[in-house]
Amino acid sequence: MSAPLYPYADEDQLLDALKQGQPQAYEQLIEQYADTVYRVAYRLLQNPQDAEDALQETFLTVYLSVSQFRGDAKLNSWLYRIVTNKALDILRKRQRKSEAATQALDDLGEAMLEQIPDHQAVLPEDWVERQDIHEIIEQGLASLSPRLRTAFVLFELEGLSMQETAQVLNISPSTAKVRVHRARQALRDFLTAHLSPVEE
């Protein structure tokens, strides 16, 4: 299948049209980049509704601030930076909400456990066999801290260079490299623990 023909053939033309407020330019921007932006948001947030919110907020930010974009980075790098920041904002809001409810949930959980004599954690014997490997990987990704997850997603899953990853995250390439390395180690440990053979 041939690539779709867009009104604006290259990035510079598209940016100029965006800055001029051309409706076709916004339509092309969304058509070209919506899937990528959503994919990044979902991998960072692990929640479809939150990813959709980040997607909408990203394109709204582009609409409101494209006139200030100086072109010192590629358009896709700018979009990566925006969606990453939006996703991190959502994660911070989510964390504040969860912290407010954590103590109440802990108290309730302890009260319920006290009513169950000799309670213990019980897992299906063939837990690993029943779990889809992809799901386990997604769980491992979700277990990473936001800093490690964003670096890993951008570099390993989105294919950005280390320099581009650093630019999107506004950190040095060496810091980006450390975060990616730590993310790999953490994921390896997670997968090793969850994919180990189940003892009889």
CATH topology of the largest domain, by name, is: Rna Polymerase Sigma Factor, Chain: A
**Mean pLDDT score, rounded?**
80
- Low-confidence parts: 100-130
Q: What's the quaternary structure here?
A: single chain
CATH class of the largest domain: Mainly Alpha
Q: Structural class, from helix and strand content? A: mainly alpha
Topology:
Elements: H1 11-19, H2 23-45, H3 48-65, H4 75-114, H5 127-130, H6 133-143, H7 146-157, H8 162-169, H9 173-195
Question: Keywords, please?
Answer:
200 residues; 2 domains; Rna Polymerase Sigma Factor, Chain: A; mainly alpha
Give an overview in words.
- The chain starts with 10 loop residues before the first helix and ends in a 5-residue tail after the last helix.
- The chain is built from nine helices and no strands.
- Helix content is 74%, strand content 0%.
- The protein has two domains: 100 residues, RNA polymerase sigma factor, region 2, helix turn helix motif (Rna Polymerase Sigma Factor, Chain: A, Orthogonal Bundle); 71 residues, Orthogonal Bundle (Arc Repressor Mutant, subunit A).
- Helix 4 crosses helix 8 and helix 7 crosses helix 9.
- It is mainly α and 200 residues long.
